[in-house]
Sequence to fold (585 residues):
Amino acid sequence: MSVLAQRQRVRTWMFLSPSVALLLVFMVGPVIWAIYIAFTNLALTGPTALHPQFVGVGNFVTTFHDVLFYNSALASLEYLVGSGLVGQVILGLILALLMQSPRRRFKGVLATIVVAAWVVPEIVVAFLWYAFLGYPHGLANVFLILLGVPPVQWLYSAPMVAIIVANTWRGTGFSMLSLSAAIGSISPDLFEAAAIDGASAWQRFWRIVLPLIKNTLATNLLLITLWTLSDFTLVFVLTGGGPGFATDILPIYIYQKAFTFYELGYGTAISLLLLAIGAILSLLYLRVLRVEI
Amino acid sequence: VRAETDITRSVAVAVPAVRRRSVRWTDVGAYLVMVVLFAFFAAPFLWLLEQSVNPVSSVSLTMPRHFSLENFTTIFRSGLATTPFVNSLILSLGTMALTVVVSALAAYPLSRYRIPWRRSFLLTILFMTGLPITSLIVPMYDLFVFLGLINTQIGVILVMSATSLPIGIWILRNFLETVPVELEEAAWVDGATPFVSFVRILLPLAAPGIGVVATLTFLGAWSNFYVPFILLETQGEMPATVTIYSFFSQYGNVLYGQLAAFSLLYSLPTVVLYFISRRSFGQSLTLGGVKG
Fold:
């Protein structure tokens, strides 16, 4: 090897070592650690806190018989489909389409408030929605009373709907921005040609817009799925997983297992399952992006 | 002048009246949808604004009898907000600085040197940007107890930096790719070492990329609730996000006004910073530099 190549190799490692070290200790480390403790009966307190025993695949076997785990997986799925795939993506797409017409002056104001909802810290969003849905005098209920409908205890009688709407409110800004950029980059010639051929707005949407933003839409769907699956704060503050276990999405169930019931080993086993789903989706994301490096 | 009227006339002829009216109707429909959406997105904010300036605290939305900044002064005079805000700043600025420096260093060889495993390294980095890291907080907690990093701000900074590193490296590498290598070569001819040319030439040219990474990292760290909530235990170390949560669950309905004022002050930097940097960085801020 030439001196130059060797020097370059040393430099490469000098520049890369801080990030490699950080990533190894704080990202790869917890994964390996998780794999280790998921196979033990590690607890937060008590005798097995100091001397955890190896329990093999015991934790994973427990998972498959755990009714509450299935309940959480289902809750996560409802939350994901409702707020992520239906709420954020469809509402984001509608907003992105509304943003295209140059004449609508109002669109700037609308875009700003939608993006503001996305930028505001999640803890504040949770607090805002708690007050908004408040019983009986939160703004949502004031509106119902004005319409002559009796107020509703949203977080008790329709908790899943409440968290889905709140998360849709919070996340739509991202979809709007990314889809709006994708639609904006479509050549106007295509629309003109379609208009000359007599295509309706509906046809233009299905035949031109949708095929051309297909990739952005797929990226968007995957990112939202990943974020929604690991989302904790909003639901934790609004309902704490309740009432009962109605909104006990997986990240909250993991938290409860580890820090309320002190079963760190079992909590970690579920974490690994969630991470595995995330890893598969992330691989899919790489495929969809089809980056050139 | 004549040419102009000709054009006007021909346009008037080309666009039939019927079509014009139908365009107007879709516009009315679009406006209606936009107003409804605006109401949906604006409504939850109203209460926050109203409560923060209303000295009489309540969960309901009422017109304040009189406007007052009492809630804002109270949270600082009582010391409720001061320490959390300082802690939030320490954690966010620390995370931002560490992430920017470390990812800029990593981005350099990845954009300049011919490394055989570069492609797989970059794909791994991109893969990491997608991983749901919050699901790892339980083993992270245990690892932190083991490493003695539990309940330390430096521990939280390290974790938040590590989780924002992948996207930081990715964005900065993409920016450095756009800087022509000839500029550096000129400096090398003049006797500059690669490190000097990196700091003096490459970094200033990659300033927009650094801005994007700094902004994204700061916003992420400032808003992060889960990581400090799990890894910190002492009240005096907690950032504003965690304080808002514990204040909310402790005093709930009683001190809504103060809580609203606190939340408003805490949210303001994120919104202001986002819109300022969006003006200078545009799209790359939203999409994190990843092109779809």
